[in-house]
Structures are given as structure tokens and as C-alpha cells.
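stage 2 :: seqdesign
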């Protein structure tokens, strides 16, 4: 008994000698600190998590003369592997390894400067809230609703202006000023988006854009870890994600690895000599070197070195410094930032802006790092090319001769977008009109996974589809219905459902991103309720609602085989089949009634079957022929044996 008491006493004494943030062994339950301290000006990422496959974490430390400090962490589970000084004396980069059995909690990083000054920064490792496999990405069962948040709905006018920011003006009559839309405005209208039949939301960037003008669009980020206060708070962003997920809707974040905004905090004190491209010229006040925008240089066997450099290294515009992803610290920063937002918000996907512009080897590593941690996640990259060879090059699994593997699940189908518009605007002839759709879809043989490609009638950077189709409502319906039945992931820009347009100044970005009616108090037209909409607008809204809600539950569209027949007499028939289910999409460009002999489509084995018109609800028995009484599209559905 005396021996047991003595043993317990020794154990107690030993335990008392351990500091609260120092584990006695590697099975520590939680990390704890006796006092939370924040002596450091900036540390990024601001916190991290336990439980990742990659146990490495690189911390950016920004503080006056911090390069002269020696950092230490008194924790057996968290080890400093490397400390790197920057060009600037105000940076340290600390590589740490977080052992697999580290538990969530807080620990202190202590800094001792040469003059004896001591600083302490408390850092938190959080516990992951769901398993990596449960971050489910978007796929061909989804339709994304693209929103420019400043122009959608202003639920909190009190956050419109902040005097400590560079742009403080709110002016709804100026297409390039801020209008006041915010995150809360999206959250409060999830009912509307859900009811229309959309299953995912892609918002243009919501992070801080403290630029002097044109900050509304969000693509010149000045702080990668903060939500722009004019859009809302981090908690409101999280609320949007949680509320969407609760409805079974997915949230996709718009990210930019290629460039930042000129007013980014680090542009006033760059950590290395090569943090941004053409940095020396920038620091010397020389003229900006712009990208040559020759995106084909990424694949071109014959491209000169100067063309390749001009594409990847040049700045997009003078207010958007081009980030140098070949700097390994910049590369880690971008990768960790993406993972931080996925984990913080519970994202379902990322849309990566200007995908071919950054260093392409880095982009492969970036996407690969994300997909390693989140195997069911989705990433779509913007490759604005009308060449299917280039679009296909960037998709995961592409059989590229140079051996390049992008790790990117999805790319954007600008080629099919253009073909859709050309097909409907052109008069029918051997090589014009509907044959553009037919031959455009035939290019799917080039894609590793066609159904993971993202199709769209328009987006925030091009004229509205209603404008591109010259104000023709029927053609607009045909474009939308066609794209929504294709083996693709469709994306539709907010306002398409009410025929928003840019006729006054086609192609003008500020006009394209017009305020959604009803999103501001006092609007005389309210598209959320239907008040004040024209007959055509209400009809289009209802049309899309029926089609989207049908598609939402249609596995034959999500997963089915595709068969289409060459255009014939101004018509184009496309079939989707899965087991007993069939969807038939018919485009008819004839102004006068026409009868089509259905024996031409006999191989589809529909004879005698009853098909329902998805829009009208009427039944049609597939026998000898079909009379198409008016121009437009017809979507028929059957699940008969």
C-alpha cells in the first residue's frame, strides 16, 4: 500500500511540472493554454484543423522586424521543421508538422527577438466537423445559379458603406459603382432559388476587395482571409452555406489564384523579391507588363519561351498584380487558403477564375492537393476558349500527349455556348443553323468526362443570352431547354429567368450585372414575388421553374446515354435514355406547321409509347409522325417499358 501511495505521489509531482500547453506524452487529449495572447500583427492561416492527410502547415507571420526572432513551440505533437526569413524584415514563414494524434485546442508560439523582446501568439487547431468524404461536389445532377452578390439583393443597408475603406460610394445609377447587395440578400432569398429548381449556388467573390473603384465585382481581392464587410461577415457567409446545405443545396466559392488586388496589404511590403511577377518593375514604378493572353501557349508544341512567359507572367490589368506561384511560399499560401475556406464553410465546390493564366504546373498541384483531402469535391476552371481541344486539355483524365494531368474535375464549355447561339441565330443551311449544335456536341469524344463539363447560356462576363439571341423569347427558351438536357453541369446566371438583358450597351459588364428587381427596398418591380413583371417575364420564369424541377429529379438526364440525330427539315432531335426512361428534346425552327415522320427515329424503340410534355403536361403517343405546330422546343418524357 505504501508503495502505491509513493508511486501516485511521484506521478502527481511530475504532472505538476508540465506547463498547461505542453503535453506529457503524445496521447494528449486536448491542447490548452493558460493565457490567450495575440502579440503578432498577422498570422495566416488564422487557424487550422487536425485530421488532414497532409500533416504539414506553413504559417505566414507578419510583424515589425519579426525576421530577427526565433520561434518555438513547446508541444511534443507540433514540431517546427523549418523557419524561413523573407526579403522584408517583417516576415517569417514557419513550417510545422502536426502529428496524426494531435487533438484540437490551442497552443502558443513564442518569439524571442535579438534584443530579448518576447512575443507570444496563441494558435488554434480546430476539430473537423465532418468527414472528408462528405464534402460532396457538384455534378450532372446539379444546376448552378450564378450570382453577382452586389447586384442581387440588399438585405442590410447598414453595411453598404465603411468610411475606413477606399470606395465608400453607393450609387445604383452607376453601373460600375457599388449597389449594396450582400450575403444576407442571398440567404433571405434561398426560398426563391430553391423553388425555381436550382440545386447549387455560385456567388462571385465575397472576400475583401478594398480597391479604390470597381470593387463591386470582387475579382481584385485585398485580403484572402476576410469577408468584405460590405457583403457581410464570416458568420453570415457560414449561415448562407449552412442554410443552403440544410435544403440539400450546394455552395460553390469563386476563387482567384492568378492575381490579387493592387491594394492588397502585402503589396506595400512584399515578403520576397519574386512574390508577384514583374515585381522589380512594379517596385521601380515602371510601366505594367500585361499578359499577352495567348492561352494556347499552354499546349502549343511550337510556342516560344517568350510567348509562354508573356502569357503566364504578365498582369491581367494594372490593378491586379500577377501572383508568382513558382515561389513555393506563395504556392503554399494559395493551396492552404483554398483548403481553409472549404473546411470553414463546408463548401461543395470551387470555381477557379482565369484558369490557364497561373503557372500550370502549380495549378495541377493546387487541384491535386484539394482532391487528395476531399476526394468527392468538385472544381471547375474557367478556360475561355471556343476550341474543345483546349477545354478538354484541362480536365482530369485527359489523354494529353505532354503527359499533363490537371486534377481538375470540370472545365467550362465556352465552345458549346457559342455553338448554341450561332445555331439559333443563323438561318438553316448545310453548314449553318442547328448543325452547329449537332457538330458541337459531337466534340464530346475529346472530353475525358463530358457530363462533368459545365455548360451555360451566358455568365457575368458576356452579354445576356436574351441579348445574344436578339430579344427572341422562343430562341431563348430553346437555348435553355437544350442545355438543360445535355450530358453536362448547367449554370444559369441570375435574372435569366426574367429575360434580363444588356440591349442598351451590349457587352458592357456593368449593365450585364444589372440589379435584380425586388432586391432593394422601394423597387417597383419585384421578381421574387412576380409583382410588376411583364407577361413574357412571368412566362419565362414559370418555364424555367418547370424545366428545372423536372431536371432535378430526372436520373435519365443526370446519368443517361445520349443519342442525337442530324438536323432535318429545320428540326433537331436529341434523346436521353436510362433503362425504361427516355427524354426527347426537339428543337423546331420552322415558322409554319410541319409534320415529321418518326420512322427516322425508330432505333429509339418508342413506337406506341406514351410520352408526357414536361412543360404543358399533355400526353403524346409516339407512332408514325409528330406535328410541330409552332417554332420552339418540346421536351417529352416516358418511363414505359
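stage 2 :: out
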Amino acid at each position: 500500500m505504501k508503495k502505491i501511495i509513493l508511486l501516485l505521489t511521484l506521478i502527481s509531482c511530475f504532472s505538476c511540472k508540465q506547463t498547461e500547453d505542453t503535453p506529457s506524452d503524445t496521447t494528449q487529449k486536448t491542447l490548452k493554454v493558460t493565457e490567450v495572447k495575440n502579440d503578432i500583427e498577422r498570422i495566416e492561416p488564422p487557424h487550422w484543423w487536425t485530421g488532414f492527410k497532409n500533416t504539414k502547415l506553413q504559417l505566414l507571420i507578419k510583424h515589425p522586424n519579426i525576421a530577427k526572432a526565433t520561434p518555438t513551440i513547446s508541444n511534443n505533437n507540433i514540431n517546427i521543421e523549418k523557419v524561413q526569413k523573407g526579403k522584408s524584415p517583417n516576415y517569417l514563414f514557419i513550417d510545422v508538422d502536426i502529428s496524426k494524434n494531435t487533438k484540437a485546442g490551442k497552443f502558443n508560439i513564442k518569439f524571442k527577438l535579438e534584443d530579448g523582446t518576447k512575443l507570444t501568439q496563441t494558435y488554434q487547431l480546430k476539430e473537423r466537423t465532418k468527414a472528408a468524404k462528405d464534402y460532396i461536389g457538384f455534378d450532372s445532377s446539379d444546376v448552378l445559379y450564378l450570382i453577382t452578390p452586389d447586384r442581387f439583393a440588399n438585405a442590410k443597408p447598414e453595411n453598404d458603406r465603411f468610411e475606413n475603406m477606399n470606395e465608400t460610394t453607393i450609387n445604383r445609377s452607376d453601373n460600375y459603382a457599388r449597389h449594396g447587395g450582400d450575403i444576407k440578400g442571398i440567404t433571405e432569398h434561398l426560398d426563391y432559388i430553391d423553388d425555381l429548381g436550382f440545386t447549387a449556388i455560385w456567388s462571385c467573390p465575397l472576400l475583401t476587395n478594398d480597391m479604390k473603384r470597381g470593387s463591386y465585382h470582387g475579382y481584385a481581392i485585398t485580403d484572402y482571409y476576410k469577408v468584405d464587410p460590405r457583403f457581410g461577415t464570416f458568420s453570415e457567409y457560414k449561415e448562407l452555406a449552412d442554410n443552403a446545405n440544410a435544403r440539400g443545396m450546394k455552395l460553390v466559392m469563386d476563387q482567384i489564384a492568378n492575381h490579387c488586388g493592387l491594394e492588397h496589404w502585402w503589396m506595400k511590403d512584399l515578403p520576397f523579391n519574386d512574390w508577384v511577377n514583374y515585381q522589380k518593375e512594379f517596385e521601380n514604378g515602371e510601366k505594367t507588363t500585361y499578359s499577352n493572353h495567348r492561352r494556347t501557349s499552354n499546349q502549343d508544341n511550337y510556342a516560344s519561351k517568350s510567348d509562354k512567359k508573356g502569357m503566364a507572367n504578365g498582369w491581367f490589368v494594372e490593378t491586379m498584380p500577377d501572383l508568382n506561384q513558382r515561389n513555393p511560399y506563395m504556392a503554399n499560401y494559395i493551396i492552404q487558403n483554398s483548403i481553409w475556406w472549404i473546411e470553414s464553410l463546408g463548401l461543395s465546390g470551387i470555381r477557379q477564375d482565369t484558369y490557364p493564366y497561373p503557372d500550370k504546373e502549380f495549378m495541377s498541384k493546387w487541384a491535386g492537393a484539394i482532391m487528395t483531402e476531399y476526394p468527392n469535391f468538385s472544381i471547375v476552371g474557367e478556360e475561355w476558349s471556343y476550341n474543345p481541344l483546349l477545354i478538354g486539355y484541362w480536365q482530369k483524365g485527359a489523354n494529353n500527349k505532354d503527359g499533363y494531368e490537371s486534377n481538375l474535375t470540370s472545365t467550362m464549355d465556352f465552345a458549346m455556348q457559342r455553338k448554341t447561339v450561332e445555331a439559333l441565330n443563323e438561318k438553316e443551311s448545310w453548314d449553318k443553323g442547328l448543325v452547329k449544335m449537332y457538330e458541337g456536341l459531337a466534340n464530346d469524344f475529346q472530353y475525358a468526362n463530358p457530363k462533368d463539363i459545365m455548360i451555360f447560356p451566358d455568365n457575368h462576363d458576356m452579354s445576356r443570352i436574351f441579348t445574344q439571341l436578339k430579344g427572341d423569347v422562343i430562341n431563348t427558351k430553346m437555348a435553355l431547354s437544350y442545355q438543360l438536357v445535355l450530358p453536362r453541369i448547367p449554370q444559369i446566371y441570375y435574372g435569366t429567368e426574367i429575360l434580363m438583358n444588356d440591349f442598351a450597351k451590349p457587352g458592357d459588364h456593368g449593365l450585364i450585372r444589372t440589379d435584380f428587381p425586388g432586391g432593394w427596398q422601394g423597387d417597383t418591380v419585384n421578381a421574387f414575388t412576380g409583382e410588376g413583371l411583364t407577361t413574357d417575364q412571368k412566362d419565362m420564369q414559370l418555364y424555367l421553374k418547370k424545366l428545372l424541377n423536372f431536371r432535378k429529379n430526372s436520373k435519365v438526364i443526370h446519368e443517361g446515354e445520349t443519342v442525337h440525330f442530324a438536323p432535318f427539315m429545320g428540326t433537331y432531335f436529341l434523346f436521353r435514355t436510362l433503362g425504361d426512361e427516355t427524354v426527347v428534346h426537339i428543337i423546331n425552327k420552322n415558322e409554319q406547321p410541319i409534320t415529321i415522320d418518326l420512322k427516322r427515329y425508330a432505333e429509339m424503340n418508342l413506337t406506341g409509347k406514351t410520352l408526357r410534355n414536361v412543360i404543358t403536361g399533355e400526353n403524346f403517343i409516339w407512332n408514325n409522325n409528330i406535328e410541330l405546330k409552332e417554332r420552339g422546343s418540346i421536351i417529352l418524357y416516358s418511363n414505359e417499358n
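stage 3 :: structure notes
- The longest strand covers residues 118-126.
- The two ends are 82 Å apart (CA to CA).
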